[in-house]
Design goal:
Layout lengths: L5 H22 L3 H29 L4 H28 L7 H23 L10
GO molecular function: transmembrane transporter activity
Subcellular location: Cell membrane
Membrane topology: Multi-pass membrane protein
Amino acid sequence: MADRRLSSTLIGVFVSMAVISTVLSWTSTALIPTEITLFLWAVAAFAAVPALQINVVTFGKAAPNLVSTLNIGAFNVGNALGAWVGGSVIAHGLGLTSVPLAAATLAVLALLITLITFRQTGNPDLAPATH
């Protein structure tokens, strides 16, 4: 889907991650609902990878190998920052059920950055793929 409707895919992914993370804060006290919610979260999180990869390659056409490498590096930085935010939430005594709410906040922040980027650069949707 990301190869046809990039902006819609990224917006949908970040909205899904925010909603599912919020739901996780409610379901995290019971095993089965937590497992279902985490599965849905994983689907949404992994759906972001190809869409973001297409996005950076689209904007970095002159050096696709470089932007691909930087994109994966950015994923690693994001993982580290996410762990730091989650640890900070716990360290400040907000409780484990607050960690998904912090994740939802980060997803909303990613959505806002995405919307601002799309507005400044125009419509990033690619022409339909020819297979």
